[in-house]
Amino acid sequence: MRDRPTLHDRLSYRLLYWAAQYAVKYSRHLATFHLRPKRTGLIGTHPEPGASGEACTIFLQGPVAQEDDFTLETFRLYRRHFPHCPLILSTWRDTPDSLLAPIRDLGVQVVLSDKPAQAGLFNVNMQLTGAAAGVRAAASTGAPWTLKSRTDQRLYHPDAIAYLVALAKSFPPAAGVNQKYRIVGVGQGSLKFAPYHVTDQTVFGHTEDMLTYWTPPLREDPAPAGWPNRQQDIFVGTPIGELCRYAAAESYITSQFLERLGRPLDWTLQDTWAAYRDHFCFADFAATDFYWVKGQTYSLREFVTVYDMTTNRHEFSFREWLLMQTGALRAEDARRYEHVLTERFNQPVSSIESPAP
């Protein structure tokens, strides 16, 4: 039986409702809000019995998110929504057992790793170490599919895994490469105007492909000469093309995967869109009811969309990806945006038309 709403639940709902009404009536915007339960006991949804077919190992990577028992509650929800899926936590060896014990009690396999000697730019080696340990443990379960996620992210929809399997099976990757199915980007960060920038947050694929994707060599090369010392200054002050090629974790992981498939890269947006077309797919956030503590709790925004301009951090959505599959949008169309690679993130994007081919 689900928990009953508390006084704070009812009061917060009314306050949000009144605030949204006020915004709609008096501001220049339309407004909505969306509430997700923190606790599994407040959730009454269930998967469709015929939709949960093939097994998928789900592993969460990173330090345990303690506020509101977020990681623990995520595993509780996944245990109920995806009972056929093996669950794994890949985290650091110095994690207190008091945090791990209740997770183990749910039947979750806990994989502990030592932190790498070098964290790498933007902590890429920290991420790769935890992801590699998690994906290898996932492969040992024998499940054909793997979902890699973060300890501070959650998929609320009870048919999310079935949906991702169906998505991968519906769109085979390009022929002639050793790739069984497409890699599906689920989390935030699959960018339209940044080279090979597929999300490194929540990612889905066939287990064999995921093994390849998440086990590149650690990044030992230092930042290029003349770059700022502080990573925040690097992000703010470096042109997008350089930032992705020499620093961004997302672009490193994606480009390493493509190179291991034998695909040559030229670090243009045109080739990036072609790689998206041939080897990847993107699930819109609403399809899995995706939630990220860092991205949504702190910003209080449901979507990353803005309406006053197109920014160069625009997500490459399933809509745009599907348009590429039908030919309505072509990789060659990216040529009008190549100048964006010389700009910094968070700038508006202007379209410079290229001559007709």
Protein model, in words:
The protein is of the alpha/beta class. Helix content is 36%, strand content 11%. Strands 3-2-1-4-7-6-8 form a 7-stranded mixed β-sheet, sandwiched between helices. A two-stranded antiparallel ribbon has the order 5-9. Strand 1, helix 2 and strand 2 form a beta-alpha-beta unit. The protein starts with 6 loop residues before the first helix and ends in a 31-residue tail after the last helix. The model has no long low-confidence stretch (mean pLDDT 94).
CATH architecture: Alpha-Beta Complex
Radius of gyration in whole Å, from Cα?
21 Å
Shape: globular
End-to-end Cα distance: 63 Å
Topology:
Elements: H1 7-26, E1 56-61, H2 70-81, E2 87-92, H3 97-104, E3 109-113, H4 124-140, E4 145-150, E5 153-155, H5 160-170, E6 183-185, E7 203-206, H6 207-213, H7 231-237, H8 240-246, H9 249-260, H10 269-279, E8 280-282, H11 285-288, E9 290-292, H12 293-297, H13 318-326
Parallel strand pairs: 1-2, 1-4, 2-3, 6-8
Antiparallel strand pairs: 4-7, 5-9, 6-7
Helix pairs in contact: 4-6
Notable characteristics:
about 350 residues, Spore Coat Polysaccharide Biosynthesis Protein SpsA, Chain A, alpha/beta, 9 strands, 13 helices, two-stranded antiparallel sheet
